[in-house]
């Protein structure tokens, strides 16, 4: 009877210590938690660069097609290329910030100080920046392709009107020379580029949400 009582008391103490260890370290800071943080870094860079790549390629198609008939407008319509390239920088900024907040496991015990709370916050930050930049790149590329082609077509039409001897305001083609469409195209690029900026701001806010088991 005494041996049975002693045997039941010892496991009870061990279970309580394991439970305390699990509540303080294992549960909020599991070993798989850093995967979430590094995933946020990867998603921010990958999706942001995908948006920048698509926006650059799609805008380049329209610019090159426009440059055939109106080569003098080539440099003037290079704005969408710059705006699409900025999207990749957004992802890089977020990835660098998240990487700086990653915590290494303890050397002696091997316990993970990086919590899953921080991991999910960093994963959300990376996805916000990456997917917002991807959507922005899609909008920039498609709008730039259509806009630059329209600007080039209007400029070529205005030049043809002048060659034919029409000097008056023939439907607005001679005086405008594509400026009206160019201003509209730039405004579209600005609002499309703001989508990636919104994701960047949200990611910066989420990156400040952290909880470390080493401090608590």
Strand proportion, as a percent range, falls in under 5%
Helix content: over 70%
Q: Which residues sit in consecutive blocks of at least 5 with pLDDT less than 50?
A: 4-26
Q: How many angstroms separate the termini?
A: 42 Å
Q: Please tell me what the overall shape is.
A: rod-shaped
Structural Rg = 29 Å
SSE-based structural type: mainly alpha
Largest sheet, in brief, is: none
Number of strands: 0
Counting DSSP H or I runs of 4 or more residues, the number of helices is 6
What is the N-to-C order of secondary-structure elements (H for helix, E for strand)? HHHHHH
Return the average pLDDT rounded to an integer: 80
Helix and strand topology:
Layout: H1 2-26, H2 33-69, H3 79-100, H4 116-163, H5 173-176, H6 179-206
Describe what you observe in this structure.
- With 216 residues, the chain is mainly alpha-helical.
- 76% of the residues lie in helices and 0% in strands.
Top keywords for this entry?
216 residues; mainly alpha; 6 helices; 0% strand; rod-shaped
Brief overview:
The chain has about 220 residues and is mostly helical.
